[in-house]
């Protein structure tokens, strides 16, 4: 995704950010903040003023009594564990990629997995928004606007800082396995209920799945991290270097994909280890791809996944990337994909050199039929009229937007599509 802003501003503090917004709005220009550029959609694109928040890093304040930390908007997720470590704190849950900024992650609905845990926006107990006139709007945990502002798609203002509800630092015991897919699906409900953080990856054209089950332990528990050699083999050689080569081979010669997937499905998994939570939650990814992810009601994931298997078989596509399935608890964030319902996520990917359109379009239609809601930061084709039917508080969010940004200073083509002009 590319953008051609009229100019790029790089504020070094909140006061400079306020001036940038006020100056742009005063000149009749649209304003969009950009985080790490991780989203697959054009949610941060603008032809007006682009705000690069990469200088807004680090902790502003810590409330040790309530385990709350106030972070500047541009702080990258991968920096947060070391910032929290001196206070004995950790984020309750994380996704498997940590390159995003905290503001971008919560604004687009980034999530990890775990049936008892919400997405990252549920950790937000405060947010400071720069308004069109440059003023600051502080939204606290007792403010009725928080469920809108914590996951606002950038439509309600530019985030200056975010306050997170943290937890005492903890250890994760990880079990990674290569298992028969039929066994995984048969015991799926029990696994999801019994395990703090469960997910699985299915390699199309195979009968196997790579499972990940992470169990939370106290921070005082001993860690048994993978040795340097084992970590390099699994996280660098298999998950990135060889996977990149096999994706490239599959792109050039699609007929080899089933055999390559079968080999990959058996190689990945088969290790037990324990480490600080962030070290287990996150994984380094270097293979380029495009992604679409839909959230379906948790009790519909079985039928939806089976239908996806059948769809791939019927179309005889050759899909080198695994299908990823994760879970999240119901929450109260108005535009959260898990709003009001326990949720399962089904994500599909294609190597960046391959055409994704036919595959993604068909999968999207299938998952919509199962009550799916699209991830805001990943590829989808939904428009405001359809989305309004999927989110009970959609109209309430639009009313807040109309009040805070009536002139659509913070709008762009993406928001015009998903929220309306």
UniProtKB/TrEMBL annotation:
> Which PROSITE patterns does the entry mention?
FAD_PCMH
Q: Where is the FAD-binding PCMH-type domain?
A: 1-169
For this UniProt record, the keywords arranged alphabetically read as follows: Oxidoreductase
List the InterPro entries.
ALO_C, FAD-bd_PCMH, FAD-bd_PCMH-like_sf, FAD-bd_PCMH_sub1, FAD-bd_PCMH_sub2, FAD_lactone_oxidase-like, Oxid_FAD_bind_N, Vanillyl_alc_oxidase_C-sub2
Top-rank taxon, per record? Bacteria
Q: Which SUPFAM superfamilies match?
A: FAD-binding/transporter-associated domain-like
Q: Which PANTHER family does the protein's record reference?
A: D-ARABINONO-1,4-LACTONE OXIDASE, L-GULONOLACTONE OXIDASE
Q: What is this protein called?
A: FAD-binding protein
Native organism taxonomy:
Bacteria, Bacillati, Actinomycetota, Actinomycetes, Micrococcales
């Amino acid at each position: 995704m590319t953008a051609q802003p009229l100019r790029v501003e790089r504020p070094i503090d909140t006061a400079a950010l306020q001036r940038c917004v006020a100056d742009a709005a005063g000149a009749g220009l649209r304003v969009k903040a950009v985080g790490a550029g991780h989203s697959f959609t054009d949610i941060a694109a603008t032809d007006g003023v682009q705000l690069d928040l990469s200088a807004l890093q680090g902790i502003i304040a810590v409330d040790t009594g309530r385990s709350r930390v106030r972070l500047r908007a541009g702080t990258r997720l991968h920096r947060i564990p070391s910032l929290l470590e001196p206070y004995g704190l950790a984020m309750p849950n994380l996704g498997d990629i940590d390159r995003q900024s905290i503001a971008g992650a919560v604004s687009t609905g980034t999530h990890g997995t775990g049936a008892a845990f919400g997405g990252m926006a549920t950790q937000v107990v405060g947010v400071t928004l720069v308004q069109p006139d440059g003023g600051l709007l502080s939204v606290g945990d007792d403010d009725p606007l928080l469920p809108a502002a914590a996951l606002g798609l950038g439509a309600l203002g530019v985030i200056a800082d975010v306050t997170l509800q943290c937890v005492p630092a903890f250890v994760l015991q990880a079990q990674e396995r290569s298992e028969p897919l039929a066994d995984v699906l048969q015991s799926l409900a029990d696994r999801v209920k019994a395990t703090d953080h469960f997910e699985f990856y299915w390699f199309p054209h195979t009968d196997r799945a790579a499972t990940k089950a992470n169990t939370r332990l106290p921070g005082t528990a001993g860690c048994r991290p993978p040795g340097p050699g084992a970590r390099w083999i699994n996280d660098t050689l298999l998950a990135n270097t060889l996977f990149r080569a096999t994706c490239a081979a599959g792109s050039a010669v699609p007929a080899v994909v089933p055999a390559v997937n079968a080999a990959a499905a058996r190689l990945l998994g088969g290790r037990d280890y324990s480490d600080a939570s962030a070290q287990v939650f996150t994984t380094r990814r270097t293979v380029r791809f495009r992604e679409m992810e839909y959230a379906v009601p948790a009790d519909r994931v079985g039928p939806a996944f089976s239908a996806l298997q059948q769809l791939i078989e019927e179309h005889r596509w050759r899909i080198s990337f695994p299908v990823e399935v994760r879970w999240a608890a119901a929450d109260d964030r108005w535009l959260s994909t898990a709003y009001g319902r326990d949720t399962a996520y089904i994500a599909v990917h294609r190597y960046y050199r391959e055409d994704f359109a036919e595959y993604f379009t068909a999968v999207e239609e299938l998952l919509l039929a199962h009550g799916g809601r699209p991830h805001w930061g990943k590829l989808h084709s939904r428009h405001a009229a359809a989305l309004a039917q999927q989110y009970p508080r959609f109209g309430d969010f639009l009313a807040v937007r109309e009040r805070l940004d009536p002139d659509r200073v913070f709008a762009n083509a993406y928001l015009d599509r998903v929220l309306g002009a």
